[in-house]
Design a protein that fits this description.
By secondary structure, the protein is α/β, with parallel strands linked by helices. Helix content is 24%, strand content 34%. The two termini are 31 Å apart.
């Protein structure tokens, strides 16, 4: 498909309350209009937490909700959850369509400042897959600070970041989302949350959709809700052909 509609969900998360967060996100997504892709924040069922041992049993709750929404909305649903696999914990993003998992991505850059590296195992895969003729790259929060990891050497069409990014560092979030769009000549979707975590960090969101020039198509700040935008692949392709910067990338 040349033209698709994308949706970024910005919920108010309640830390360490999976059932409440699933119910809350369900209410928001139920209000969404026709869309092709729905993006949720990082660890959207629990908030960003190191208490993986307490919430590993809740993974299926989040996966089942995403499967349900993918069928109800006929959309690809993306968001990260805490996963326990073979004795290791992962901050894993799922891409689910038609009730089936079609791709996963384990967070590559773990946030050592919060001790994420002590509780979770980093991933190695790039998280790139195709959906409706679009090549999509999934990333999670702290990955945003490492441009080499997302460097567009595979001609992906859409770069996605699910995050729990607090207010104290929000300028970095806003600036780097725009930078990733410009340097990779790619549409970018950022999904963040609002609220206050268990350690009294506040979140105002700034979930955003950028086009391939860095232009802001939609953004939301200080309130929960949804943002939607139509994005057109042929326009991005034409821009890349006119200004073929990606061909000059040096490995």
């Amino acid at each position: 498909m040349d033209k698709i509609t994308v949706t970024s969900v910005q919920p108010k998360l309640t830390w360490h309350q999976p059932e409440l967060n699933v119910e809350h996100c369900h209410h928001l997504i139920a209000q969404s209009s026709k869309t092709d892709i729905i993006v949720l924040p990082e660890m959207w069922t629990t908030g960003f937490t190191m208490k993986a041992h307490l919430f590993k049993v809740k993974t299926s709750l989040g996966i089942n909700a995403m499967k349900k929404w993918s069928v109800e909305k006929s959309a690809l649903v993306i968001g990260s959850l805490i996963v326990n696999e073979n004795g290791h914990y992962y901050n894993r993003s799922y891409a689910i369509a038609d009730g089936e998992i079609i791709a996963t991505y384990d967070k590559r850059h773990l946030f050592t400042y919060a001790g994420e590296d002590r509780y979770f195992t980093k991933g190695h895969n790039k998280g790139i897959f195709e959906y409706k003729g679009w090549k999509i790259s999934i990333n999670i929060c702290y990955d945003l600070r490492f441009p080499i990891w997302s460097r567009n050497k595979t001609n992906y069409d859409l770069l996605i970041y699910s995050a729990n990014w607090p207010d104290k560092r929000i300028e970095a979030w806003k600036t780097l989302l725009k930078a990733r769009a410009i340097e990779n000549q790619s549409f970018v979707i950022g999904s963040n949350c609002i609220g206050e975590d268990a350690w009294h960090n506040t979140y105002q969101g700034w979930s955003t959709i950028h086009d391939f020039t860095g232009k802001t198509l939609e953004s939301i700040n200080g309130a929960e809700g949804l943002i939607n935008s139509d994005i057109i692949k042929s326009e991005q392709d034409a821009y890349r052909n006119e200004l073929p910067f990606l061909k000059d990338i040096i490995d």
